């Protein structure tokens, strides 16, 4: 029980905190307690957290030029005045010893050597121009984390050159989910959890993949007495806020949803009026759902018939204030052969409940539209996307074009379709399954430019690595957020650059554009920001001051039509039929069947980490060590059979990889599943994350889900045995 | 483990030995009343001084904040009599000064007034008891038994007698023949110590879940080798067996014990045997403290 | 004069470590030391399982075991009932750490900090045996402790136990919150909902 406490002091490697403490910040060890005083002469500067991709509004307290504290910005709709642990860890990134300090170029020996910015721009510009002249603009791609500054300077750069090849990191996150939702509902709604009477979470854990506002909404729901179901092979960290845990067999969420639809229809618990009026081909759907009885689903999911019926009835009886939450990566973001189909069914079960865009239902809200100066040159016609997303007749016609099938890059390189790429704030070589395939793919590019704050697995195979200023050292583009109360938000530079030769992404791209004669497409950030505010009728100076401005609500309750082919909710989608699938969602088996004695390796987020970068933040790495967070969860019964005790060293292996970790033996997981968090196993040479565990991507082959092209990240089977046995 | 580690175990051990050694000196005077044990008495009293000094040094070394800011040690008696640390440090400090004085008187062969011996004896017993009370009053379930201070006192005196024997015999081999009465006391203490030890484990195991975890750590867990090998076998079985055999043999030879006859030759074998057996007792005393300190598991607050 | 206390609603706690990380920053602690630590307990057998999370820190006892054993008087209870430490008196004997039933004391190691590669902010820890002080410097300023401010799910309420109208006092009654191991008799002032 007290194990964690007793091993607290074992991780000696970790160093220090940075200087957060500076002089007057606090008084630990500073002599008499009466000297204690609050931070003196501190400045409070608004910013947007970069701990994960949620970009929560925060206030940075700076004293003596150093970050001493961060707080949530109460105006911001995602943080609402609070922050998760990642914010406190990431606040010190600027001072990290691994920071890149000047542009690097890989020489003939494969080693990086520093070069000047002038040389970098000149050489990159020339090489890129040569490649485009020779192979066309569509041989160039850009990989990013989709935020507005990337849109303004990254996407626009690519488009100015005539390419449409923009890939976000979402292929390894929510490509399937977004693809499914896009086709049935026209986009991804947000569950109004706070006001719903019943919420069913599928694989999504607000307590593990934290966005503060969502967790707060769940707490509100709990306080209001709503019923919360969590469907997850693992009893996740949100469990105390849930009324019931449905420990589903991994990869079978689709069966549960099909059966829920079946019960809702059979027991006439659905919103008939809504479905008939706003549904496209509802009768086809109604007919198809007949086969998916709770008895059938029980067999697939390992959930009892009674539980399945109970959930369906709870949802149906409380509609429209009953929702199946939209999830994120969770269970069907990009994980199984049936993930896109699962996403379609989540959308359609919500439609059956008639909750689309009603209070306590699934909301479609829009953010403010932010515009650029009128005098900027607009990109001309773009070459078709290399992945064929959204192009009829292509393999991944269905895939969401806003995301792209980024995991297919190695194939495009091999086929000679991609020759050059830029990558910023994204680490595809580590984040997509099969490191070897990814590494080879990205190495095969004639030109790879990575913009980052430290080396990543992707940067290590790049030709040029350009050092970006870290997030507290830069001002970014004004950005908008939707919601019942839309907001405009801004990241404002809080501290001076620690390393003077680093640059903001916006500077890097516009300077490179100058070099390539593309200046007309760009203007400086300040002009962009002032223009956006002016056109919106808000004060930029006020935004600089407070970081967030709340706008009048534009949200109107009630169904407003869908952004789908038919303009309705697509209970049957023609597009799916066109792409060779069925119009109405149907049961799809997971691709991998787990042999007797093996485990399905599933993964998920831990609340102190984001993607794979944060394990190099010493404070956060320290928590992982202290609490053995980089352990694999195995069901107690299975562990007993294998002679594995809690805390034992174990080996996880399959035909792709063999690695060592420790076992967390628990009753809180489905026997078929082995859960390992997705943040560990870095291969980049960084200070704090060597020897930091395993990567789930080393165990999953390079593969595609048929519908969306997503990488099927949980379609893999592993053996686990005691180390030394 | 709690925040206290090896250094505290050594400190408690040395303080115990010092107290035991001094008590041996007083026993020579008052209990055995044998003129031929003067050297043993002197050795015992003199030994107690540096051993205690070393212990105090280790205590200071372990209190790093005080080590680097020595003036803070002046605050040590701020919490009398509530803090066992304050009280104990006061006892030990007084004991130390008394040891120096008593040692000086012995060195100068001057008369040692009885009140010095009485005070010394009280302070020595206080020191031995304090080493047990210090940890006994901490909020560690395994330590919260009434037996612990008694066990530490008894074990301290027993290890102290052993240390004094070694010191005395190193000085003058012949005293080996005159220490039989003390050996009886020693044997009694060892047997009593074994009894206390097992009752402590029994009581601890039966009163609290966390304490029971500590006990199983000692009996069958990671401390088992130290316990069975170090403490029980080397520290108790060897000395108890050896001293018993010796006392039985001795009884067969008696009486009368002619003062001038050399019944036993204090040969090399006898001396080495004494070093070995008494060394084993001392080692056992160290194992006891190490085990007790290491087996501490904080209170389970998650009940 | 107040009698400060706290309520921690573990039902709302998702074990996200934000409180301990905010605390670390606020108090300038080295990466490997925290004033708040987490215990976890699992009950039941699959599929009827419950996981309990328990954040533990100094419980600011009304009768603190650490104060009682502190030889130098470095640990004391201030006029607002906050158990604090006068660093200039602490000798680092760690008796407080051994006496505290909640394992809430932490000895800060300067050397570990210096080993780090980050810029040294010039702090001196000097091996004193530190603890949570309810962010006294903030509280004196009318602000909330850092662990409370950052807590996303509002699982922490800080306030005056002597004021029956405080949010804290009301919540303790309403949620039937109880101190941890009240049987130990130290009269802790952190109340838990479990």
From TrEMBL, chain A:
Keywords: 4Fe-4S, Iron, Iron-sulfur, Metal-binding, Molybdenum, Oxidoreductase, Signal
PROSITE patterns named among the record's database cross-references: 4FE4S_MOW_BIS_MGD, MOLYBDOPTERIN_PROK_1, MOLYBDOPTERIN_PROK_2, TAT
Taxonomy, superkingdom: Bacteria
Annotated Pfam families: Molybdop_Fe4S4 (PF04879), Molybdopterin (PF00384), Molydop_binding (PF01568)
Cofactor: [4Fe-4S] cluster; Mo-bis(molybdopterin guanine dinucleotide)
Domain 4Fe-4S Mo/W bis-MGD-type, first and last residues per copy: 42-98
A GO MF term: metal ion binding
Keyword Iron included in the entry's annotation: yes
Entry similarity comment: Belongs to the prokaryotic molybdopterin-containing oxidoreductase family.
Protein name (database record): Thiosulfate reductase/polysulfide reductase chain A
UniProt source species: Texcoconibacillus texcoconensis
From TrEMBL, chain C:
Domain of life, source organism: Bacteria
CDD domains to which the protein is assigned, alphabetical: PsrB
Domain 4Fe-4S ferredoxin-type: 4-34, 47-80, 81-111
Family matches, as Pfam families: Fer4_11
Keywords attached to this entry: 4Fe-4S, Iron, Iron-sulfur, Metal-binding
Membrane-traversing stretches: none
Any one GO MF annotation of this record: metal ion binding
Record bears the keyword Iron: yes
InterPro entries recorded: 4Fe4S_Fe-S-bd, 4Fe4S_Fe_S_CS, ET_IronSulfur_Cluster-Binding
Alphabetized PANTHER family for the sequence: PROTEIN NRFC, PROTEIN NRFC HOMOLOG
Record protein name field: Fe-S-cluster-containing dehydrogenase component
Lineage: Bacteria, Bacillati, Bacillota, Bacilli, Bacillales
């Amino acid at each position: 029980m007290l194990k964690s406490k007793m091993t607290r002091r074992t991780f000696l490697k970790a160093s220090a905190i940075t200087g957060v403490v500076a002089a007057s910040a606090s008084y630990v060890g500073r002599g008499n307690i009466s000297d204690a005083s609050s931070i003196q002469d501190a400045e409070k500067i608004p910013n947007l957290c970069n701990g994960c991709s949620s970009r929560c509004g925060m206030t940075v307290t700076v004293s003596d030029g150093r970050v001493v504290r961060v707080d949530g910005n109460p105006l911001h709709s995602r943080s609402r005045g609070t922050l998760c642990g990642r914010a406190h860890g990431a606040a010190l990134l600027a001072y990290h010893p691994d920071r890149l300090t000047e542009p690097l170029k890989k020489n003939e020996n494969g080693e990086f050597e520093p070069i000047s910015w002038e040389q970098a721009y000149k050489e990159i510009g020339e090489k890129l121009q040569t490649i485009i002249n020779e192979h066309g603009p569509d041989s160039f791609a850009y990989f990013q984390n989709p935020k507005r500054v990337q849109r303004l300077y990254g996407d626009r750069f690519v488009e100015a050159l005539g390419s449409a090849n923009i890939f976000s990191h979402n292929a390894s996150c929510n490509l399937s989910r977004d693809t499914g939702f896009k086709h049935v509902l026209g986009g991804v709604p947000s569950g109004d959890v706070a006001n719903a009477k019943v919420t069913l979470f599928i694989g999504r854990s607000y307590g593990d993949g934290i966005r503060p506002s969502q967790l707060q909404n769940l707490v509100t729901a709990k306080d209001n007495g709503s019923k919360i179901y969590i469907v997850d092979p693992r009893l996740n960290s949100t469990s105390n806020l849930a009324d019931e845990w449905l420990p589903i067999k991994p990869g079978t969420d689709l069966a549960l949803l099909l059966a829920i639809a079946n019960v809702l229809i059979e027991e006439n618990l659905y919103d008939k009026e809504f479905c008939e009026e706003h549904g496209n081909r509802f009768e086809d759907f109604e007919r198809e759902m007949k086969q998916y009885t709770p008895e059938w689903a029980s067999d697939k999911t390992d959930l009892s018939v009674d539980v399945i019926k109970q959930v369906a009835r709870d949802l149906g009886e409380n509609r429209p204030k009953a929702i199946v939450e939209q999830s994120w990566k969770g269970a069907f973001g990009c994980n199984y052969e049936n993930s896109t189909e699962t996403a379609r069914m989540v959308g359609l079960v919500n439609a059956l409940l008639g909750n689309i865009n009603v209070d306590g239902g699934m909301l479609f809200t829009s953010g403010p539209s932010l515009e650029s100066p009128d005098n900027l040159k607009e990109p001309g016609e773009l070459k078709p996307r290399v992945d064929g997303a959204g192009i009829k007749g292509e393999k991944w016609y269905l895939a969401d074009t806003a995301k792209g099938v980024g995991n297919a890059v190695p194939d495009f390189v091999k086929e000679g379709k991609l020759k050059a790429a830029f990558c910023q704030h994204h680490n595809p070589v580590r984040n997509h399954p099969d490191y070897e395939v990814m590494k080879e793919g990205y190495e095969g590019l004639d030109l790879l430019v990575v913009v980052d704050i430290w080396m990543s697995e992707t940067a290590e195979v790049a030709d040029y690595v350009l050092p970006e200023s870290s997030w507290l050292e830069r001002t970014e583009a004004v950005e908008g957020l939707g919601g019942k109360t839309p907001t405009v938000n801004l990241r404002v530079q809080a501290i001076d650059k620690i390393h003077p030769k680093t640059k903001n992404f916006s500077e890097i791209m516009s300077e490179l554009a100058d070099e390539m004669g593309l200046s007309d497409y760009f203007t400086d950030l300040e002009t962009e920001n002032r223009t956006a505010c002016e056109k919106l009728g808000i004060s930029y100076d006020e935004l600089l001051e407070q970081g967030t401005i709340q706008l009048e609500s534009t949200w109107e309750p009630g169904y407003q039509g869908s952004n789908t082919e038919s303009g309705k909710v697509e209970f049957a989608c023609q597009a799916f039929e066109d792409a060779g699938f069925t119009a109405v969602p149907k049961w799809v088996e997971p691709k991998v069947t787990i042999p007797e004695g093996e485990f399905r390796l599933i993964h998920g987020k831990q609340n102190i980490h984001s993607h794979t970068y944060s394990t190099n933040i010493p404070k956060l790495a320290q928590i992982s060590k202290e609490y053995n967070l980089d352990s694999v969860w195995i069901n107690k019964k299975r562990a007993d059979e294998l002679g594995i005790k809690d805390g034992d060293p174990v080996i996880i292996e399959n035909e792709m990889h063999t690695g060592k970790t420790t076992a967390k033996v628990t009753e809180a997981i489905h026997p078929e599943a082995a859960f390992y968090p997705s943040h560990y196993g870095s291969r980049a040479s960084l200070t704090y994350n060597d020897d930091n565990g395993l990567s789930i991507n080393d165990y999953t082959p390079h593969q595609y889900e048929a519908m969306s092209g997503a990488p099927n990240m949980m379609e893999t089977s592993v053996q686990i045995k005691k180390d030394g046995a | 483990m709690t925040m206290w580690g090896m250094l505290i175990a050594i400190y408690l051990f040395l303080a115990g030995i010092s107290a035991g050694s001094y008590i041996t000196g007083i026993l020579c005077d008052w209990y055995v009343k044998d003129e031929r044990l003067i050297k043993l008495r002197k050795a015992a009293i003199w030994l107690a001084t540096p051993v205690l000094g070393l212990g105090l040094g280790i205590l200071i070394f372990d209190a790093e904040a005080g080590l680097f800011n020595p003036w803070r040690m002046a605050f040590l008696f701020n919490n009398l009599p509530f803090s066992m640390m304050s009280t104990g440090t006061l006892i030990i400090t007084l004991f130390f000064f008394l040891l120096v004085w008593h040692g000086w008187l012995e060195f100068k062969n001057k008369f040692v007034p009885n009140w010095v011996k009485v005070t010394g004896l009280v302070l020595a017993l206080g020191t031995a008891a304090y080493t047990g009370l210090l940890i006994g009053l901490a909020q560690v379930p395994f330590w919260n038994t009434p037996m612990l201070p008694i066990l530490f006192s008894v074990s301290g005196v027993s290890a102290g007698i052993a240390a004094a024997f070694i010191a005395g015999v190193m000085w003058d081999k012949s005293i080996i023949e005159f220490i039989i009465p003390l050996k009886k006391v020693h044997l009694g203490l060892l047997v009593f110590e074994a009894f206390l030890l097992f009752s402590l484990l029994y009581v601890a195991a039966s009163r609290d879940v966390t304490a029971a975890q500590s006990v199983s750590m000692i009996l069958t867990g990671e401390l088992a080798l130290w316990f069975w090998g170090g403490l029980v076998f080397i520290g108790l079985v060897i000395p108890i067996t050896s001293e018993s055999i010796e006392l039985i043999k001795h009884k067969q030879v008696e009486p009368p014990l002619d003062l001038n006859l050399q019944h036993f030759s204090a040969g090399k074998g006898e001396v080495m045997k004494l070093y070995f057996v008494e060394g084993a007792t001392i080692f056992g005393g160290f194992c006891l403290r190490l085990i007790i300190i290491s087996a501490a598991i904080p209170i389970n607050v998650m009940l | 004069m107040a009698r400060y206390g706290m309520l921690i609603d573990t039902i709302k706690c998702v074990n996200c470590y934000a409180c301990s990380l905010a605390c670390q920053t606020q108090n300038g602690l080295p990466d490997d030391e925290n004033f708040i630590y987490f215990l976890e307990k699992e009950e039941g057998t699959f599929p009827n399982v419950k996981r309990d999370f328990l954040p533990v820190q100094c419980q600011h006892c009304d009768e603190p075991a650490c104060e009682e054993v502190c030889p130098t008087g470095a640990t004391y209870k201030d006029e607002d009932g906050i158990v604090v430490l006068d660093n200039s008196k602490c000798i680092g004997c760690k008796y407080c750490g051994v006496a505290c039933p909640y394992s809430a004391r932490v000895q800060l190691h300067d050397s570990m900090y210096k080993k780090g590669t980050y810029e040294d902010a010039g702090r001196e820890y000097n091996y004193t045996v530190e603890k949570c002080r309810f962010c006294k410097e903030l509280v004196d300023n009318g602000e909330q402790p850092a662990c409370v401010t950052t807590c996303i799910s509002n699982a922490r309420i800080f306030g005056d136990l002597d004021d029956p109208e405080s949010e804290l006092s009301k919540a303790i009654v309403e949620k039937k919150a109880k101190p941890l191991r009240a049987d130990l008799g130290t009269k802790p002032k952190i109340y838990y909902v479990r």
